[in-house]
Amino acid sequence: MTQTVAAPHAAVPTRAWVVLALGLLAQAAGTLLVSAPVYLIPLLHLQLGVPLAAVGALTAAPTLGMVLTLVLWGAAADRFGERWVIAGGLALTTAAAIAAAVTAAATDALVPLGIALFFGGAASASTNAASGRVVVGWFPRHRRGLAMGVRQMSQPLGVAAAAVTVPPIASAAQTSGVFVAISALLVVLTAACAIGIRNPPRPQIAPASAAGSAPAGSSVSAAGSAPARPAPPPNPYRTSAFLARIHAVSVLLVVPQFALATFGMVWLIAGLGWTPAAAGLLMGVSQFVGALGRIVIGALSDRVGDRVRVLRRVAVAGVIVMALLALVALAHGAIPAGFAVGGIVLVLATVVSVADNGLAYTSVAEAAGSAWAGRALGVQNTGQFIAASAVGPGIGAAIALLGYPLVFGLIALAPLIAIPLIPREDRHG
Description:
Layout: H1 14-35, H2 41-47, H3 52-80, H4 82-106, H5 110-138, H6 141-151, H7 154-196, H8 236-239, H9 242-271, H10 276-304, H11 307-331, H12 338-353, H13 357-368, H14 373-402, H15 404-411, H16 413-418
Helix pairs in contact: 1-4, 1-5, 1-7, 3-4, 3-5, 3-14, 4-5, 4-7, 5-6, 5-14, 6-10, 6-13, 7-10, 9-10, 9-12, 9-13, 9-14, 10-11, 10-12, 11-12, 11-13, 11-15, 13-14, 14-15
């Protein structure tokens, strides 16, 4: 008898790449809204004199909103599918962006704007939770590292877009103009995702074995009862500590990422004397290069076949570049062309700081399995954004008290602590 064997590396359907592209753009647009307050810091702090800790609290408002809804959005994606979770979440994000524009035009107070941004972050979390699940559903394992690397470009691309566009728009049209522009973009992407995204095929779950077996060809058990219900997949958090360890590692590695994204531009301006336009452009370049780096790292993990080993090397690199940045911040005045050297090292540190996300997300999704991926990615995002929401006010206050060099050095401890927590081998659900 001839048996047909499936090709080990089946082709990825075109639909998968279309859905991936839309998910990337959706999350990038949400990140643009969440990151906009960061690039309002030069206007609010350096020109209007708002304390750095207060501005840091404003930047934390959208990430705090994300923290409270990520798991809920992930559970919704597991139950209802990715299409309407992403499209519906973007519609709510659009409403929050419009509210932010109206609020910013009506008053200079930061609290009402922070409330609007809080709800914007809560809504935009839908794209974080659901777009990662799309990768697991549409792509085979041998392409998931690359696909998740592409998907994970969304965060640095959104930050890059904010870095390049927010300062000039704020200069020309104030804070309200920034959120008007973001609202227009979100309207377009909401419609595109509602039309173009399709839920991936869901794998069939094997039925639980029954006591005794029915005769061949019978549709009922020997006792005449209906077929047994499919056995639900086990809770991956109860079968292994792998997911918990990856979550903890990701929380630690997100500290330098958000610290540099939030205060890197301010350091360039206040510490090295860069102009706001030049600093914004450099931050945009660093985030764009970081986005490309995520693709390279994801493809490398596919080639190596060991995601946690690559993740460990990224963490080691994170310690090195943050320590180097601390030294440059301390001694840039004594370094020839310290103005330029500081910018180069900041770009290098930023690229390394964003490289781990795709690896960790892919590891979480694969270990959780398709039935738990949405919830597990929601937990993954929640932990990261809890840390991120503390970075704004916490690091801002620390910089005001201790200065940039010492704070950069302290941030290097986060990836150092993460290294021994990284599991020794991958796990697949």
